[in-house]
Amino acid sequence: MVSETNSVHIFFFPFVGGGHQIPMIDTARAFASHGAKSTIITTLSNSLLFHNSISRDHQHSNLPITILTFPENPQISDTDMSAAPTTDTSALHQPLRRLLLELRPDAIVVDMFHRWAADVIDELRIPRIVFNGTGCFSRCVRVNLQRYAPHENVGSDSEPFVVPDLPDPIELTRSRLPSFARNPSRDFDRMRKSEETSFGTVINSFYDLEPAYADYLRNVLKKKSWLVGPVSLCNTKTEDKTERGKNPTIDERSCLNWLNSKEPNSVLYISFGSLARLPQEQLKEIAYALEACDYSFIWVIGKIFKSSKHKETEEEETNWFLPDGFEQRMKESNKGLIIRGWAPQLLILEHSSIGGFMTHCGWNSTLEGVSSGVPMMTWPLSAEQFSNEKLISRVLRVGVEVGSEEWASWDEERRVLVGREKVEEAVKKMMGKSEEREEMRRRIREIAVKARRAVEEGGTSYGDIDALIKELQAPRIT
Ligand code: UDP
Question: Any idea of its EC number (predicted)?
């Protein structure tokens, strides 16, 4: 740990919303635990989502971490965690400028979705470190897709191609590529350029998870980066795990009691993250598959996508469109626990009864699955999730692909559903007894051990945090 004398002051400026805000808060906490004075700058309404854990760090653990709130702004106050990549936060331009001028931090870690922020930070000559919420593998895939455009040389959206020049032969199809990889928008180019001109990138990953891609990123693509994760592992207290991101819609005790009533490795955990909306017909397919299999499950149902022909109303949002009597049957047989809204994901994943994780391959969920040693059933939907799927299933070989083929934006209605037969087959493969499953489990447990080692003293992520702090300290010492 870096000594507290001469400690650096780092601003952390998270994006307003689940998948990006959660790991940035954990990152700030990790840096504070290494002695850096960490200030999280955010709106008041967002700060309510994590102020308890920050107070605990500050008051009970005496860590140098605080939250500084901007004046409330109706344009960007978002408490339901649904802020999307497209949310425009530029109303924070002047407030940010004022804070930077007033407090002159040694550096700022800024989420790449604050697309406008680079100009003001660079103008004030404050080292700008980008946080983009993804891992090394998907970043290498993205850069090489852009460099070589292999998707332009195939005859159809479903014809596979190999992403050139990567350490492994990674196959994708055009239908699995994000729209921003097919046709980069102005916003996307802006984010890419601001990353290129930054001081570097902090990455929520660890070296032993994707060593070939961490090396490729640093040595071949020449990206200055610090691998500081898995940052979720800074949540060691049960309260922090329970309240992470949002207050759960199930109380911790009943969730744990339910899990305690199950055999080790016997429960499938299903969640599609904080943003994804599945069509109601897709929920039905999942429900039929779960009913046809003999395995217990926890299913977190977030928002659904009602047909675009209907305007979504509050009432429709809370209507859940499961098959008739499904929920009742699951409850009576104690086979399934359905959580509507927000689940205490870390707490669940770390429970010994969890034997598989059906995930949309959001990067945080992927890392949380890995760190908990739980094999995954991959069901990518949006963002860079189709790349993450390949890392899980082909590079690490700790997951089974469910068969999702179509990338769609989080707010777009998807046309292609995954049928119940495919879901059932994948669930049986993941949860049934087989040599293949045992191998997967063994592999992911080994990686989970390495994840914990990475953040401990002497570990690679621990070392990268210290290295970045030292680098920021250097100009003060000379
Ligand atoms: N999460 C949670 N409970 C939920 C849904 C999500 O705690 O019910 C957390 C999850 O643990 C993860 C984050 O929200 O840390 C979701 O991030 P991810 O990158 O997996 O997906 P995104 O929400 O960005 O699509």
Answer: 2.4.1.-
